[in-house]
């Protein structure tokens, strides 16, 4: 299953996995840095994944988002 771009504007870029159970978001902070967030929902409570990283540049944040999308893609 792939990812689709759900939102892209001056502040937020967000992808949603095709099953609807995972999102990856890049958001620009007020100080010019970026936050990359991974949110994966699973049926079992102990299987959910939430990660958040603060990154200095948009390019590096988009690279991290691409890594997470590849790692959490469904075949």
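-> sequence recovered:
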């Amino acid at each position: 299953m792939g990812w689709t771009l759900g939102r892209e504007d001056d502040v937020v870029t967000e992808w949603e996995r095709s099953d609807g159970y995972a999102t990856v978001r890049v958001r620009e902070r007020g100080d010019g840095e970026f936050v990359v967030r991974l949110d994966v929902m699973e049926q079992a409570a102990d299987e959910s994944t939430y990660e958040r990283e603060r990154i200095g540049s948009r390019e590096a944040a988009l690279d991290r988002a691409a890594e997470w999308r590849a790692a959490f893609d469904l075949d």
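The two ends are 6 Å apart (CA to CA).
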